[in-house]
């Protein structure tokens, strides 16, 4: 069960090698989390991440999970919940894709959409049902400010995150009053392996900063978290710009 501040004893990470997710896990282990499940494709990276978290004092197990295989989600994730209650599910998998390449290769573009949206819908509903059945828990969904308004430079990724964000908000409304809390996290540019080599956007942040925002959001029972917080104002302005003006911005 969670403590008086809303922090979990048990954590399931969907996307077990995500730098943001692992920074969040480290932070929560330093507070109270003692049991961690890392769900992802079996790999040396997943095993290494599990070992690092074990070194912090947590009991850590891995589970084979592939966002692109929705047919296997219920079975794979059901085994986790069968082991006992899960206080927090962190949905952290995703892919950025390569906009220029993906525009020329529809199959690659579809892979981005299937990973970021279809896979998240499937896994999110499976976990939401399990959390509701146990009567408590939080589902934290890593969205992105890219979903607020699609930009020419990354509209394939942005559109997939827009779908994810809308889904998570609706799921939160559907679960309101059930004891299950859904929190959408909207980071801006985060310095990770996924963004390495890309031009850094204004208000860039780090996995550790996102992790701190997640912890604070859980304590406050927030429904939406922006990282950094200033992006709420920036994106509100960009969202309401006339389309002709928006097109001319160097975004």
UniProtKB/TrEMBL annotation:
| Keyword field | Oxidoreductase
* Superkingdom: Bacteria
EC number(s) on record?
A: 1.1.1.333
**InterPro entries cross-referenced by the UniProt entry:** NAD(P)-bd_dom_sf, Sc_DH/Rdtase_CS, SDR_fam
Record-level Gene Ontology MF annotations:
oxidoreductase activity
Class of this enzyme: oxidoreductase
Cited PANTHER family: 5-KETO-D-GLUCONATE 5-REDUCTASE, DECAPRENYLPHOSPHORYL-2-KETO-BETA-D-ERYTHRO-PENTOSE REDUCTASE
The similarity comment for this entry is: Belongs to the short-chain dehydrogenases/reductases (SDR) family.
Q: Which NCBIfam families would you find in this protein's record? A: PRK07904.1
Official protein name in the record: Decaprenylphospho-beta-D-erythro-pentofuranosid-2-ulose 2-reductase
